[in-house]
């Protein structure tokens, strides 16, 4: 058992002392050439001998009970091996970190599109044909599917002070409603699993983000010991939350493989990914801001309604960032969860901030307008000394610098008054928003082996595009004084020590720290072998130095040194509030005739502790900002009003941003050290870029043409209606 | 009962190698490459021609391989990502994608590389696009043109700026070499 270092005290800055010079550098991803040449193997791409193919069949009712399966239409089809159905089938993917089986509904149907059966055949084509032909019969029950009218609502109120009085006493107030539609992760790799059994042991090659949890979830789903489950996910074609928890395709593949005695591959179609994988809830939000004439906030109210299936514990934490971004003594929240029968909701990149900050940062823009204060200045006037509700200090926060430096770099002072700049048919305008995303630490373990002048890092951490291979290699290389190509990082196998996994922006800080701690133990052993104190040891390019003694690692570590490192959260997470911060700036063009909004420039300035790899961190920020752009302008799940089923269930109807939607994007990362976060002083960055980004886009639309979009996304029909209402 | 989908023979010339397959007529070119020839570098993202992850070149022209059946390509020259370069000997485009971080998860990447490679040839041949000012002359190589021409390739990680920087760097290098 690895000893787990508890994060109880601020940590010294060892990375400011080491001399290998790789940490933080914008280095290429070590797995990059495998990816760009098509050699990196994803879940569906390593066929097992004798493997067969399964295609899921979905429910075509919203709620009720399965009463029969008619296989007659499959008779005579060549290659069909069976129609698999089992009480172990799961209703939907597990929620992130559930660590247990999702609901196993047996014959009960809870939403349109629920996985009901698996048709298995010798070929994919035959299985797909069989799945299309299979006829299921049901007894239907009444289902509530509209979150605005449903009768079953869970409520979670919370308040500090008296917001109503603050609103009554305020010089300036905002009281507005905002709404955001359902959204999806839409990772480019559809969910896929290959399962095979050897005796009582099942191996699953899947596409998952959090293997330590996924192993337990799969074991619990199958009713077997986790010791009998191995999951492999060395390459994951995007996650964004959709692969946090074990999915229906994995459980179905494992069951089918057991029944048929052959390896089974199940790959979801793109449409099934929309139907069966957790979506982001739509939100209906009310924002109230009470401020003095100078813009100082007296209070904030953030009430929201989100939805989920009965029985699902997750609910979109819409007001997440509202708790800590801005000051004001009087604060009120009311979180409502409408229980409805739609594809259940779960974590999608930056659950909470991604949609909650669209409303919060829009409302701040509206307040700035009403109060006659510059939007950047308004935010600067409302930076709280401490966490406004917990009363604890921020561990590190360069929000002010992000705002000031961003404004300067963007040329914010050149922004023109609302609807005053026009180039031909285009209104041009600029908008901005703040960004904030809480930083967390999750228990994580890793093993590092130094043998001669080569090191191996092993952990069941995943790289879902986030850069884990790069940063974990850099961390070990920096601490052990090795060039990057002397360190090999092996990920995505539950036989390795259990990591945090990738989700909630915790991966770099948590799994990175476990690698750091393991490598640091090896440093201690090297110091001992050198006969010096650890702080007197310098490691660089495979050479250990202390005073005038110098020895190569090939000699010191001629016999392999293996150490495990582990970290878990401690007092620092309670005594301080930790978060990354940033500011977004957007220039947009709005076409006066078509209502089309095109982002022309986008700048994000962020502070997230020590940056471990400037290149991959920048890509994470760009990715998040583009998601914000998509949320602002195009992304929208549409549900059939009769069944609740998702009708925009492919990439032609659910519009993720494409090349033509995205200009060159500027990202600046401010230097920062967060000693309370972890021994590397690094904070999460994967979700910071999306936080607030979309509001900068719609705030820019307002500045361009005077149309305030409160019902996201800002599609041309809404902009045209707004322009017409203004007589423009 | 007669088999409903008797296999049919088809010979494809894949990355310079002649491959004869006996395939179900319903097998797409994409699945023939991935599942029958184990060339899994070509990706399946949507199977409906909406994402571009399956982009390959057929007789020198880029297409979505999910939208065409293998048996329709008798004798065709197919170039996949495996034919563009290897980890040991990557093409300039592949190397530029690594340098510019024109990817994150890597799943759409082979399709982006294929499109990027094909786009440069389309520019060279003077093909116009929806955003070209002049449909008869040579289109300027600029970011707007490139973004338009690459828009059939979705990237949910949203590495678009890096992707276009990579393609632009290769275009610039090629142009300098020509001058």
Automatic annotation (TrEMBL), chain A:
- The residues that cross the membrane are none
User: What positions does the domain Aldehyde oxidase/xanthine dehydrogenase a/b hammerhead occupy?
Assistant: 37-142
Q: Which SUPFAM superfamilies match?
A: CO dehydrogenase molybdoprotein N-domain-like, Molybdenum cofactor-binding domain
Xref: Gene3D superfamilies: Aldehyde oxidase/xanthine dehydrogenase, a/b hammerhead, Aldehyde oxidase/xanthine dehydrogenase, molybdopterin binding domain
In terms of superkingdom, the source organism counts as Bacteria
Instruction: Name the Pfam families on file.
Output: Ald_Xan_dh_C (PF01315), MoCoBD_1 (PF02738), MoCoBD_2 (PF20256)
Annotated SMART domains: Ald_Xan_dh_C
Which GO molecular function entries does the Swiss-Prot or TrEMBL record give?
iron ion binding; oxidoreductase activity
In its UniProt entry, what is this protein called? Xanthine dehydrogenase, molybdenum binding subunit apoprotein
Automatic annotation (TrEMBL), chain B:
PANTHER family from the UniProt entry? ALDEHYDE OXIDOREDUCTASE IRON-SULFUR-BINDING SUBUNIT PAOA (PTHR45331:SF1), OXIDOREDUCTASE, IRON-SULPHUR BINDING SUBUNIT-RELATED-RELATED (PTHR45331)
| Originating species | Poseidonocella pacifica
- The answer to whether UniProt assigns keyword Iron-sulfur to this entry is yes
Name used for this protein in its record: Xanthine dehydrogenase YagT iron-sulfur-binding subunit
Q: Which residues form the 2Fe-2S ferredoxin-type domain?
A: 8-84
Query: What GO terms are given for molecular function?
Result: 2 iron, 2 sulfur cluster binding; metal ion binding; oxidoreductase activity, acting on the aldehyde or oxo group of donors
InterPro entries in the record, alphabetically? 2Fe-2S-bd, 2Fe-2S-bd_dom_sf, 2Fe-2S_ferredoxin-like_sf, 2Fe-2S_ferredoxin-type, 2Fe2S_fd_BS, Aldehyde_Oxdr_Iron-Sulfur, Beta-grasp_dom_sf
Q: Which GO terms describe its cellular component?
A: periplasmic space
**Keywords (A to Z) from UniProt:** 2Fe-2S, Iron, Iron-sulfur, Metal-binding, Oxidoreductase
Q: Does the keyword tRNA processing apply?
A: no
- What broad taxonomic lineage does this protein's source fall under? Bacteria, Pseudomonadati, Pseudomonadota, Alphaproteobacteria, Rhodobacterales
Q: Which CDD domains match?
A: fer2
Where does the source fall among the domains of life? Bacteria
